[in-house]
Amino acid sequence: MTIHVSNNFFPCIDRGNGAPILFVHGAACDHRIWAPHVQKLSKQYRCIAPTLRWFGPSEWSETTLEFNEKTHADDLAFIIESFNCGPVFVVGWSYGANVALRLSVDRPNLVSGVAVYEPSSTSLVSTPVDIAMHQLSMQETFLPVTEAAATDGGIGVLKAFIGAVSGSGTFGKLPPDLRQICLENAHTLIPLLSAKHRFVSVTAAELETLPLPVHVAWGEQSGDVWTIPSKAVAGLTNVRSYAIPGADHIWPAKDPMAFLSWLGSVLYQKPKN
Predict the structure, then answer these.
(1) pLDDT digits (tens, 9 = 90+) for 256-269
(2) Residue 60 belongs to some domain of the structure
C-alpha cells in the first residue's frame, strides 16, 4: 500500500492488529527489508513499515537538499497521525535508528517506546576522547565509499558501502532479493553521506529526558562507527542495553529471526520505574 504525504506517496507495509509497531529502515534499503519481520510479528501486533522519503525505486517530487533525520522523522510523525495509530513502539536500525530517536525526542506523545540497533550519530557521544575516536572511525570506514563516489556514482559506491559496513566482498554474498533492494537504493548513499546535508541529530542529553522505554543493541562484531554511539546511549540512566554475540551491522537483515527474538524480549519487558 501507499500513504500520501505532501506531494508524495510513501510505499508502506501495514499489516496485523494489536499494539502498533513502526519499523524504520536504514541506509541502502527500504520498507521491504522488514517483510520477514512483519510476517512474523503481524500475528500479534499491527506492523507499519514505510519507505523513507527518497528511498526505494519510486520517483520523488522533492530534491534531496533536505535529506536529514529531521525531515524523515517529521514524515514518520505525519504517517502515525494519518493512520491514527499512536502511540507506536518504534524500531530503528542504523540510519533508521537515528531517525527513530529523532522522532521519539521530537514527538514523544506519538511514541510508546523505542528499540534501536546501532545508531551512528556522533551527537550521542559525550566524552571528547570518544567523539574524536568516532569521527576518526567514520572517516576511515567510509573513505572507500568517498573514493568510489568520485569515480563511480552507482554500483561501485554501493559495493564500497556494503564492504565498509560488513566486510569486503559482502555485497556479492547477499541473498539475491536483498541485493536487489540494495541496488534499487544505491542512489541514496551520496546524499546520505554528503557533508553538504546538515543532520539534526539527537544528543545524549535529549535522549535521557525521554519519559518512555528506550532500548539499544549493538553487535559484538560491528565496527566503532556503530558501537561507540550505541555504548554511549547504553550509559544513560533510562536505557536498557544489549550486546549481541556474533552479530555485525547487518544483523537485522542477515538473521531476521534472531533479531525478532531480541525484539520480542524487548516488547515483553516492563518499563523501568
Answers:
(1) 999 999 999 999 87
(2) yes
